[in-house]
Design brief:
single chain, about 350 residues, nine-stranded mixed sheet
Length: about 350
């Protein structure tokens, strides 16, 4: 193992140990969250049928219209902090706190290109604000979305966004569908507000949500996805950051079962939807990523690029957390800015 790889892996492990609030939560089928019954006597058979139906009719499952209650609030603290947009989510989860969507608007002007930015799992309110301002510098307005169960959408008793990625099968499906619908409602607001060419920027789980949104929403012209992978379940099962989630799952479902059950919230099944599309995509991955394993990233990149021209990839000699560090953050930011400028601005 080379010196750089060893250094990156040590750094990744050290960053992982900083968070000491990870809990192994109890397993649940959670079928009541996807139209089933909590006491379903044959949950595997139910999910098998449900997955086939949902993948065959994913346009319906991910369909939404604009919210009826968009409110763009006055700036908080100062104009530099961005105005806050709120609206009601299209999915009604059991927690009212989670059903009011919050997004921070970093506007360059009142028209022109704009992107919806989707941060990583457990991102705080101020995370990736510097990235929003960097995109402002290249002329792109940014609407930074708070994902379900994050920051102002957090629910009592959960310091982390456990319900977005957790050992409750159905609730995880519902939460990730909710994230996609929240993005689509954000895009509709941007379009209604007068913004023209629209795109997405997603990091980690935000990249999966963004990929699925892009595959279903013609409003999206271009997407930049940082840390990419094929199947949601494979990341949860193998990733360092999600080892506690897999611990709550592994005694109840096999790796193959989980891959199938969570296929509707995975990028891989929707790759064929890109064939013939004029949408453009930039995928960024880390060669030493212990959370999104490089072989999964390479598989997604290879299959996406086979769909046609316009899909680009950047593989850097870094890991998951270390992508935000010098020197890796610089080529990633330059590639992102250039890509979005060419395809949106």
């Amino acid at each position: 193992m080379r010196w750089l790889e060893q250094s990156i892996r040590r750094y990744e492990h050290r960053r992982w140990t900083v968070d000491d609030n990870r809990r192994v939560l109890p397993f649940a089928w959670g079928l009541e969250h996807i139209g089933g019954r909590a006491d379903e006597p044959a949950p595997r058979e139910f999910l098998d049928r449900w997955v086939d139906r949902t993948l065959a009719h994913s346009e319906d499952w991910f369909a939404t219209g604009p919210a009826g209650d968009y409110v763009l609030h006055p700036p908080e603290n100062s104009a530099h902090g961005g105005r806050v947009l709120t609206f009601t989510s299209a999915v009604r989860s059991p927690w009212p706190e989670n059903n009011l969507v919050h997004a921070r608007l970093f506007a360059v002007r009142t028209t022109g290109p704009a992107v919806v930015l989707l941060p990583q799992w457990n991102a705080k309110w101020d995370v990736q604000v510097a990235l929003c301002r960097w995109l402002n510098r290249v002329g792109i307005t940014v609407l930074r979305l708070s994902m379900p169960y994050h920051d102002r959408r957090a629910i009592p008793g959960h310091a982390r966004a456990d319900n977005l990625v957790g050992p409750n099968i159905g609730l995880t499906l519902q939460a990730n569908r909710q994230a996609v619908l929240d993005v689509r409602r954000s895009l509709l607001w941007l379009a209604q507000a007068g913004y023209g060419k629209l795109g997405l920027v997603g990091t980690s789980i935000g990249s999966a949500v963004g990929f699925i949104t892009m595959a279903h929403d013609p409003l999206v012209r271009a997407g930049v996805f940082l840390h990419v992978s094929t199947y949601f379940a494979d990341v949860v099962r193998t990733g360092m950051n999600t080892s506690h989630v897999w611990e709550g799952l592994r005694a109840n479902v096999s790796a193959d079962e989980l891959r199938r059950f969570w296929a509707p919230i995975s990028p891989f099944p929707y790759i064929p939807r890109l064939r013939g599309s004029t949408q453009k995509m930039l995928m960024v991955s880390g060669r030493y990523d212990p959370t999104f394993w490089p072989e999964f990233s390479a598989d997604l990149i290879r299959n996406v690029r086979a769909q046609g021209p316009g899909h680009e990839a950047l593989v850097l000699p870094c890991g998951h957390y270390s992508l935000e560090l010098w020197p890796f953050a610089y080529p990633a930011a330059l590639a992102m800015g250039s890509f979005l400028f060419r395809n949106l601005a």
